[in-house]
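Researcher: Structure for this, please.
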Amino acid sequence: MKKLLALPLTFALAASALAACGPQDDNKSTGGKKEAAGDKPDKLVIWEDQEKGVGTQDAIKKFEEKYGIKVELKEIPMLDQQEKLRLDGPAKKGPDIITTPHDRIGPLAIEGLIAPIEVAGDTTKLYTESSINALTYDGKLYGLPKSTETPVFIYNKKMMDKAPESLDDLLAFSKGDKGGAQYGYLANWTDFYFAHGILSGFGGYVFKDDNGTLDPKDVGLANEGAVKGLEYITSWYKDGLFPKGIIGEKAGSTIDGLFTEGKAASVMNGPWSFQGYKDAGIDIGVAPMPKLPNGEYIKTFIGVKGYNVSAFSANKEWATKLVEYITNEESAKTRFEKTAEIPPVVSLMKDPIIADNEAAKAVAVQSERGVPMPNIPEMAEVWAPAANALQLSATGKSKPQAALEGAVKTINDNIKANHSK
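Model: Predicted structure, token format:
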């Protein structure tokens, strides 16, 4: 799932072209009849992610019984919904609600494909602050959270009795007997998605956060903290604790192979990897990430999937009501039971269904410690230069500071060239 949430956004955002694509008439219905003065539509249409409808069906049935509105659920791969909405929305055959990763919220909003929603303050308080922030763009809320995910610490219980409290402890383990493994710990720290938590934990940041608004003109990936973070990452490579094969595009698959073969005692990965490790016969333990040497938590990127109201819907108020219903505590709990997607609902964090589930609890706790991936379009310019800097430093081809300064220059130049207003 990491790939779903961290894919660079490549579509064009030229304002003149986007204006023609946006909704021209709020009375153009996509899921039912014209809404006027709160009249109920005959039908609402929701696009759910592929093979995830089972987690939403119960809530939809109860909504239909309570409000007398038919809800049509269609399963469409999440990353295909954006392009399909571009075509189906203006043609008046699109949905009232879609589901999408939060890092696409900014571009979707700019393009005029999704609409901001208005909900009561009591509603937003149901969810973790970070998940609501993830679905907020330019001061407006563009949906409610469905699920959250983030990298965590995963270990082989046959080689490690319990998760270490700190990376210092993990370092000592990796320099010791390693529980009989070849490597004590492996992490894809030349991929910025995974490395961000280290850089950020030392004080680096992608874009300056000004009370919830990200400033793309203030990139903090070459500040003192970020440099310290990359120096720490690089030390694992210099000391031979990471093999040369976990640099670059094949690093992730190499790490998975070493872990499933019993050659690595522990890894950094996300909930999307749990089942594959179990299927390989590994008795895994899962915990939040260990603390950094400076005593701070690793601030991993968190990804939030949300339900969003289509800007083409003529039934926005009722669509919003449906979004509230399918993300409330009861609905979220049922969805977790059926899909294992972890809902960022505050009350459920303490519910036994998550609190007594080692893996789910680890993801929930780490999600609270992490930060949402930036959801502004300028984030598309960060991934490649940041990864290049990480690889240059890890391979010894550049000093950490020089590598990061070069990355930031490239990021700023690309933002200026591609996102100037």
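Researcher: Any notable elements?
Model: The longest helix spans residues 400-419. The chain has a mean pLDDT of 91.
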